[in-house]
Amino acid sequence: MKKTVRDMALNVIFILIGIVLALLVPSQVKGLNQAAQMGPDFFPYIAAGLMVTVNAIALATNYARYAKEKRAGREETVAQSNPKDQLRVIFILAIIAGYVFLMPVLGYVVSTLLVVNGLLFMLNVRKWYQYLLVSGFAMVIYYVFKYILYVMLP
Amino acid sequence: MDNVINGFLQLLSVDNFIAMNIGLCAGIIMGALPGLTATMGVAVLLPLTYGMDPTAGILLLLGVYCGGTYGGSITAILIRTPGTPASAATVLDGHPLAQRGEGGRALDMAIKASTIGGLISAFMLLFLAPQVANFALKFGPAEKFTLALFGLTIIAAICSKDLLKGLSMAALGIFISCIGIDSIMGVPRFTFGNMYMEGGIELIPALIGLFAFSEIMNKVRDIHIPIGEISEVKGSKITNKELKSCMPAIVKSSMIGTLIGAIPGTGAAIASFLSYQEAKRASKHPEEYGHGSIEGISASEAGNNGVTGATLIPLLTLGVPGDSITAVLLGALTMQGLVPGPMLFSTHGTTMYAIIIGLLFVNVFMFLQAKLFIRPFSQVTKIPVNVLIPILLVVSVTGVYATNNAIFDVWIAIAMGIIGYVLIQADYPVTPLLLSLILGPMAEKNLRQAIQLSGTYMTFFTKPICIVFILLSVASIVFSLMRSKTAKDLVE
Predict the structure, then answer these.
(1) Cβ–Cβ of A54/B164 closer than 8 Å?
(2) How far is B345 from chain A (nearest CA, A)?
(3) Which of A11, B86, B328, B408 has the lowest CB atom count within 10 Å?
């Protein structure tokens, strides 16, 4: 993918986010006090405005760069990461999400042991003692938080 | 003076010394693991300090900070991969020495220079911080707003590579900081009817998400990339004569590191490279630089550890974090009830002096740990990343949960991690997001209070301190734009 095209796409996304946020301010900032010189809606508008303005400038700059590079016939591309690598990241995210869902249901110890061992398997760890070491470490973390720091773990 | 003595007496507890040594050990290990930064180390270990006494908790994290900054040099020297960006300059001379079988000498010089740099920086913190804090007591809402504004323009300094991307992230950070109950009028903002959102996006989940979760995702993506060949720790120690000959470079680099560290928006990497360049310029043997110069290592390491104490000056006295690691430390201090800012030295003087004097001890213990355990520490580089990932994940998730005993915080951290991971890939820096998350509320609250008190915007142009901060803000942006243009011109 061309770098300028990727950057322009992100600029458009940021502009859209900024516009949506600005449109949401009246409904999401409750109890607006019109008498106040500078109310609770001021900074959200500032943030949205800054996002739109900065990215509009960036979009124009990137478009000019894109046109210039195209004319010169030397367009900078970004290194595409392997889809397999990105898939692995998505898979990890799914595991983390599953972990957070399971924790209140199965409890901290069971869900943690399931997740660490599942992750080790997914990351191609094949030495049994490494499973033991990581599981042991996870239990040390449990002990520290539960019995030393008195955190009420699920 | 009473505070200094009481602080010293408060420091003299076994718990404090154990805490700083645990932090140092963990920090050196984190720094020595390629790709794991000191920032990540502090973020991940921060939840462990929740139940601790404030002095011990902060000293543990300062141990991680100093140890992590030094630990980066181990990988820089032994496997030509800087453990942290701050050790990038150490690679230039450290690895050639390791390849010649003199890794032991390189590591010996690295720890000696790091310790001297850290000590000088801690002394500067001890002497300068109270003066700055005394001055900052005069600040009212108007001054505090312009200070926050100056802090926000630091973003420009950090993102001189692409100012617009940095500002986009700052805008996102300011918006996220608006979520929750408005601090002045008490009305909910962008809570979408969710009661958990009323408390706002807390700093700890946000920073663990941005620095730990996103890094875990990066590690998972690049898991197949092998690390370089690891050199053995061989060779004798440096001699007293060599150390003496490097002392001018070490002292000068420590001062450069201290100066750079005290300026928000700079950091250890810049200090390290500037120190290295200056030492090379002033050296009698500049031709040796880049080919295994012991003096080069001393300059780089004294420079990067020279920032460790100085970065705490603006943080502790003004409440303005200069970089990502001090932003994380701000979260830790706040969690301990030590809210950084001008009042900190008045309200918690004894604890602050205990921490500052403790930083001197942290540097001494760092020296001792490195001298005694350098071989085991160097073995850390052999830990496979795929074994490390589940450990980091469990520590991070448990730490975030422990903040408020709430699963909701873990979801926030995951969301911030995804934002960080996606945007870092597109070259968006995450530090501006974190800084604006901290400085946004400070700017908003004080701006609105200043306007309410004075009734006019002109109040910012009638107070001398405000004018100074406004001028500094303008200078920061102009300087960054000039630097950005120079960098682009050089590329073209």
Answers:
(1) yes
(2) 28
(3) B408
Q: What's the rounded Cα separation, in Å, for the pair B327 and B334?
A: 11
pTM of the model: 0.81
Q: In this structure, are residues B291 and B63 in contact, taking their beta carbons and an 8 Å threshold? A: no
Residue range A139-152, pLDDT digits in tens: 998 998 888 878 88
**At which of A32, A50, A72 does a domain end?**
A72
A51, A72, A93 — which closes off a domain? Answer: A72
Chain B residues close to A48, C-beta within 8 Å: 171, 175
User: B185 to chain A: which residues are within 8 Å by CB?
Assistant: 31, 33, 36, 39-40
**pLDDT score at B235:** 61
Q: Which residues between 116 and 145 in chain A have a beta carbon less than 8 angstroms from any beta carbon of chain B?
A: 116, 119-120, 123-125, 130, 133-134, 137-138, 141-142, 144-145
Confidence band for A34, pLDDT divided at 50, 70 and 90? low
* pLDDT single digits (tens) B42-93: 888 888 887 789 999 999 999 998 898 888 888 878 877 666 667 778 888 8
Instruction: List the alpha helices (DSSP H) in B283-322.
Output: 294-305, 307-310, 312-318
Output the six-digit token pair for B283.
């050296």
In chain B, the number of structural domains is 1
What's the rounded Cα separation, in Å, for the pair A32 and A45? 13
Number of domains in chain A: 2
The ipTM estimated for the assembled molecules is: 0.90
What are the structure tokens assigned to B75, written together? 């990988």
